[in-house]
Amino acid sequence: MRIYKVKDYNEMSRKAANIISAQVILKPDTVLGLATGSSPIGIYKQLAAWYQKGDLDFSEVRSVNLDEYQGLSPENNQSYAYFMRHNFFDAINIKKENTYIPNGLAEDTAAECTRYNAIIRNLGGIDLQLLGLGGNGHIGFNEPGDCFEKETHLVKLSDNTITANSRFFDSAEDVPKYAISTGIKNIMQAKSILLIVSGPAKAKALYKALCGPITPAVPASILQLHNNVTVVADEEALELVPDSIIFY
Fold first, then answer.
1. Nearest C-alpha neighbor of 189 from the set 138, 216, 150
2. 43 closest CA partner among 60, 73, 23
3. Which domains occur in the chain, in start order?
């Protein structure tokens, strides 16, 4: 595991974007596992800027998103399908048919989970998986629990996650209570993983993920077992992590 400390969110975004751009340049038809939320927005803006300068080409890239709220259509401005279009896809030349996001309106969620797992397998797996970190240690929507969920599944969101995500909605009551999320097995089968973390609110979760025991009570702790993980985090997020294991 490589852990890089950067000054702030902007530096984190630029360094992480550099890692993703290198992946796209070296493997033009790469499969990117993508995340949503506030953490990756700066990365997507930087990648789009490089594309618009002519430095990057996404025409052969395939993308697989981690999750989607149950009950929201792709046109709903709080859906992750909308988020990806608004924050990234519409600003680059990725082909719409090469972007995959769980169907939050699927009537049969079990069948949708099976379909999504098959998509990932048929793409040959994920080359680089981008992850954010929840304040309770979740990755994707894999919430703390008694066991690690393996593949794509329907998740009942924790109160912690609903509260954290309520800033994107009019109120906490408007946040969907369930989501379809790829599982820990899906994430761990990615060839490489890029974890981005920013801000003091994530410091305790990041410490537990990197330095604590491997436990489903802290889903991100499983990343300790992956052989190709890069962490890019700012000074505030790494406040509790020993300097001896950090690259500068």
1. 150
2. 23
3. 2-245 (3.40.50.1360)
Q: Which of 39-53, 80-94, 150-164, 224-238 has the lowest mean pLDDT?
A: 150-164
Whether 143 is catalytic is yes
Catalytic residue among 68, 127, 138, 186: 138
Count other C-beta atoms under 10 Å from residue 73's C-beta: 12
Q: Is 98 a catalytic residue?
A: no
Tokens coding 13: 């975004």
Q: Is the pTM here over 0.85, yes or no?
A: yes
Q: Which of 65, 103, 117, 136 is catalytic?
A: 136
CA angle 73, 45, 203 (to 5 degrees): 85
The catalytically annotated residue of 68, 127, 143, 149 is 143
Active-site residue flag, 236 = no
Give per-residue pLDDT as tens, 29-60. Answer: 999 999 999 999 999 999 999 999 999 999 99
50-55, Cβ contacts within 8 angstroms, sequence gap of 24 or more: 50/17, 50/21, 51/91, 51/92, 51/93, 52/91, 55/21
**Distances from the Cα of 82 to the Cα of 85, 150, 196, 239, 245, angstroms:** 5, 26, 22, 34, 38
Nearest to 100, CA basis, from 130, 65, 58: 65
Closest C-alpha among 15, 10, 26, 132 to residue 80: 132
Is 60 among the residues known to form the active site?
A: no
| Phi and psi, residue 141, nearest 5° | -110, 30
Which of 99, 84, 96, 77 lies closest to 40, judged by CA?
84
